């Protein structure tokens, strides 16, 4: 059993995966004086058609702190559900393979749960103290518009739903995950809104974030799926509230 599992969902990332995992491992090892928890990295391959799975297995053979889950289908939500539901760690975290969010925020992400009493912690690119570079005006506009729509529909107090930098207390994840229907990019939004509905204590962390120019996100498709997800969730809102 470890204290924290860091899950990295991947699809066709044979080039970037080794460098990113080695960078993450180096950071965690070099930060042993300020990181007072045991950790493990779980790579979840979502049916890659290149050599991503081979690269992941090579990393697992090289580093005892790395393990691999292979899934036949795509979907970030599907990857996180598979890794988190099979984990025995106290804290379940994830980050995007491009490591766009500065790794320096890992300490606050985990410590807010371990020491500060929060059940969930999330990185935010849209807080006053956040520092974002390389992101287009169009993508920034989409993100802010998305958050505004969510605030109007759900009266949410959160500022960013889609930043790939989150952590949950394991027992809270066990209660929330059965309520989350989406298996793709809307997973993050649905998870956080259901958490808010159930009064889960969420810590928002302003982050330093560098845009990945090689992002694989299909923006029109993702926007459509997000809008459909918001409508579905709004129509079924009463079914997502429980006693926690």
List the helices and strands and how they pair.
Blueprint: E1 4-10, H1 16-30, E2 39-46, H2 52-62, E3 66-71, H3 76-85, E4 91-95, H4 106-114, E5 120-124, E6 131-133, H5 137-154, E7 165-169, H6 170-176, H7 187-197, E8 202-206, E9 208-210, H8 219-235
Parallel strand pairs: 1-2, 1-4, 2-3, 5-8, 6-9
Antiparallel strand pairs: 4-7, 5-7
Summarize the structure.
The protein has 244 residues and is of the alpha/beta class. 40% of the residues lie in helices and 19% in strands.
Walk me through this protein's architecture.
By secondary structure, the protein is of the alpha/beta class. The chain has one domain: Spore Coat Polysaccharide Biosynthesis Protein SpsA, Chain A (Alpha-Beta Complex). The chain contains eight helices and nine strands. A seven-stranded mixed beta sheet has the order 3-2-1-4-7-5-8, sandwiched between helices. The longest helix has 18 residues.
């Amino acid at each position: 059993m470890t204290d924290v599992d860091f899950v990295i969902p991947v699809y066709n990332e044979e080039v970037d995966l080794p460098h990113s995992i080695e960078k993450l491992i180096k950071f965690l090892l070099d930060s042993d004086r300020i990181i007072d928890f045991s950790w493990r990295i779980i790579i979840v391959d979502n049916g890659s058609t290149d050599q991503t799975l081979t690269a992941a297995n090579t990393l697992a053979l090289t580093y005892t702190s790395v393990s691999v889950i292979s899934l036949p289908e795509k979907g970030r939500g599907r990857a996180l559900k598979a890794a988190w539901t099979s984990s025995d760690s106290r804290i379940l975290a994830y980050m995007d393979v491009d490591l766009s969010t500065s790794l320096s925020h890992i300490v606050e992400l985990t410590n807010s749960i371990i020491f500060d009493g929060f059940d969930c912690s999330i990185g935010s690119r849209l807080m006053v103290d956040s520092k974002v570079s390389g992101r287009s005006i169009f993508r920034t506009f989409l993100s802010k518009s998305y958050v505004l729509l969510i605030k109007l529909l759900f009266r949410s107090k959160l500022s960013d739903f889609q930043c790939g930098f989150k952590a949950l207390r394991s027992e809270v994840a066990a209660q929330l995950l059965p309520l989350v229907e989406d298996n793709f990019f809307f997973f993050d939004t649905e998870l956080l809104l259901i958490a808010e509905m159930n009064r889960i204590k969420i810590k928002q962390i302003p982050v330093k974030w560098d845009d990945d120019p090689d992002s694989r996100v299909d923006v029109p498709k993702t926007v459509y799926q997000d809008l459909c997800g918001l409508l579905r969730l709004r129509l079924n809102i009463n079914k997502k509230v429980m006693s926690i």
